[in-house]
Amino acid sequence: MTLERTRSLLGGKREGVGNVMAACLGIVTPFCSCSAVPAFIGFVAAGVPLGVTMSFLIASPLINEIAIGLLLTMFGWKIALIYVAAGLFVAIVAGWSIGRFHLEKWVEPFVFETRLGGALVSSTAGLSLDDRIQMGIEEVITILRKIWPYLLVGIGLGAVIHGWVPTDFFTTYANASNPLGVVVAVLIGIPLYSNAAGVMPLVQSLYGAGLPMGTLLAFMMAVVALSLPEMILLRRILKPQLIATYVAVVGSAIIAVGYLFNILLAA
Asked: Which value, to the nearest 10 degrees, does the dihedral of the CA atoms of residues 46, 47, 52, 57 take?
């Protein structure tokens, strides 16, 4: 399942149906959050609606085969299934909600532009193979030139805080007795940077310490979908208003999922 095949499947799909398709396709495409910037540019430039693109970019790093396999072996099929369902819910609802706001004005203008030899191209229908190759090379150079400072800052920040998790603070303030435990877990997860597989050992140890599974699933989703390094990368292509909306919508959906599954699993 390549990026090109995914983009062609999502092209022309209306919102709603497109959000569901995008979230499901995200499961079988192995993107991490650092892949968000070039994937976002390619999707939006190809005409995929903003909300549909968001659904894909949330689901792709959030739900992947490795994370599902680890959850299955560590916690059983019930927890793995719950995580997949929760990830799809967050991706579909958050993407659809962002699409309803019609926030394309808060995407940096260069994302919508297709150029060949420095000139804007209104349609690629009549381009030769050589033109398409040249356009691809120019697009790669343009993207790298625009995002590399943000990429370095994001990766550097992720490297500095990698492996740093205030475990004692977590178990003290995000435990089952704290009604705001899920919110605390999400706030702790946002500054961290990891993929779903990388954060799994921490989730397992915190579960052994007695933290509720819904709280841990919310923490895991926040680390993967709302990491601070990813927000730094996205700033090059999204204006602050859209980033704030993205964090608010996705964060609210993750918190709701955490509380819901704490209730369901405790029953």
From this structure: 30
Confidence of residue 3 (pLDDT cuts 50, 70, 90): low
The pLDDT confidence band at residue 228, using thresholds 50, 70 and 90, is confident
Within the chain, how many helices (H) and strands (E) appear?
Answer: 13, 2
Between CA 166 and CA 183 the distance in angstroms is: 15
* Residue 213 to residue 204: CA distance in whole angstroms: 10
User: What's the CA gap between 213 and 108, in Å, rounded?
Assistant: 38
Residue 115 DSSP class = E
Q: Is 116 helix (H, G, I), strand (E, B) or coil?
A: strand
Percent of the chain with pLDDT over 90: 18
Cα 62 from Cα 33, distance rounded (Å)? 9
Whether residue 101 has pLDDT greater than 70 = yes
The domain segmentation of the chain, as residue ranges, is 3-266
Separation in Å, CA 86 to CA 38, 240, 253, 256: 26, 27, 9, 10
Confidence of residue 117 (pLDDT cuts 50, 70, 90): low
Q: What average pLDDT is seen over the chain?
A: 79
pTM of structure: 0.77
Q: Are the C-beta atoms of residues 182 and 215 closer than 8 Å to each other?
A: yes
Alpha carbon separation from 159 to 8, 154, 163 (Å, rounded): 35, 9, 9
Cα 252 from Cα 73, distance rounded (Å): 29
